[in-house]
Amino acid sequence: MDKSKGTAVHDKKYEKFMTWLHENNFPESKLALANFTNTGRGMMATSDIEAGEVIVSVPRKFLITNDSLTKIYGSKHALGPHQLLALHLVLVSRDKQSWWKPYMDLLPIHFNTMPVKYAKVLVGHLPTALKEQVLQQKENIEQDYLNCIKYLNTRNETMTREEYEWAWLCVNTRCIHMTIMDGTAKGGSIALAPMLDFLNHTSEAKIESGFNVRNQCFEIKTLTPYNKGEQVYINYGPHDNLAILKEYGFVLSQNSYNFVLLDKEVWDLYSEVESKRGYEIKKQILEGAGYAGDYSIKADEISFRLMAALRLLALPGTTEPGFDRRVMDWHDVVMGQTDLISTDNERKALIMLQDICKKVSAQAKNEIEILSRITETHPEAEFHPFALYFLRQIWNESNDIIEQTLVYLSDKLSRL
């Protein structure tokens, strides 16, 4: 966790925001908005904070929830919580006299470090799995926009795609997930919470959070102590950098949850090695055992699922005598009744993984090389410099994991 000291933010918008909180009896905290060298804006401890202290407490009237918006828009609509919160942000952002204006003025102006906003030249260099997820996210935004337009038509109002995309991403990057506040609350459990949403993420932070029914506030308690001047963090959950980049538009410099997904490579190898019939039979075996897909490697771990798929692939063809017996041996390994099918099978499976890793490593190195020259090869392309920096980091991290796995595989094969 970065322990560097921050520099307090002093600007009119932030001062108006703090005045707004104070005038509306927002509980005092030991936090102040500050700039930090490595993470940009975040919350700084204005005095020492002990483990077990509540670092921020957001009263119910400051929480923008599906329940609170139902009182404004009614319940006779087909909008989900995310759609409704985003629509509300668009409409409130237009109202210069809104009670929420001090909060609205501190929301991000753009989300250009998020892959969903990348220029085409960068989208083309996203890892395959991330690219598919980003395209799905783009479709989700479009569908939510169209649903909101249908609702606005009933009110003779409209909005642009750009307005809604900005609001949708505000909700996506800043919302909290909370337990239902009371028995009468309806709808989803996401909410926007001023002040709390300025806290940055690290996987090292330990917190407890929830709605305190006694004081009607959503509270976050830190289990990690902080010294005056240090950045105070929360923990969004056990996410790898690909997930963090897609959902929040940044990456962590050190992330123990990082992994490389090899689903495409494994299924491609199945197609190369097996006949069409053999492919279908072995895929059905994997599906039946619950081992189809989610094949990953980490810096210090090869997933059991991945090895299960490769051990099955390493079994002799489905038409050869004794295949059913060998599948039973495979099931014994999957069920943990034995460690290996055979030394020969294990060697073949490890060699297959070694070949996959070599191909993926070559791809990663190629992507790193292309991205290092992309401003020269595409001088006309416009993208945020951090977008390129984060994307290069993603590929470097993937290659590091693959290289460590190759060292492990080489050592393991030499001992078989």
From TrEMBL:
<dbReference type="Pfam" id="PF09273">
    <property type="entry name" value="Rubis-subs-bind"/>
</dbReference>
<dbReference type="InterPro" id="IPR050600">
    <property type="entry name" value="SETD3_SETD6_MTase"/>
</dbReference>
<keyword id="KW-0949">S-adenosyl-L-methionine</keyword>
<dbReference type="Pfam" id="PF00856">
    <property type="entry name" value="SET"/>
</dbReference>
<dbReference type="InterPro" id="IPR015353">
    <property type="entry name" value="Rubisco_LSMT_subst-bd"/>
</dbReference>
<dbReference type="InterPro" id="IPR044429">
    <property type="entry name" value="SETD4_SET"/>
</dbReference>
<dbReference type="InterPro" id="IPR046341">
    <property type="entry name" value="SET_dom_sf"/>
</dbReference>
<feature type="domain" description="SET">
    <location>
        <begin position="29"/>
        <end position="237"/>
    </location>
</feature>
<dbReference type="InterPro" id="IPR036464">
    <property type="entry name" value="Rubisco_LSMT_subst-bd_sf"/>
</dbReference>
<keyword id="KW-0489">Methyltransferase</keyword>
<dbReference type="InterPro" id="IPR001214">
    <property type="entry name" value="SET_dom"/>
</dbReference>
<keyword id="KW-0808">Transferase</keyword>
<protein>
    <recommendedName>
        <fullName>SET domain-containing protein</fullName>
    </recommendedName>
</protein>
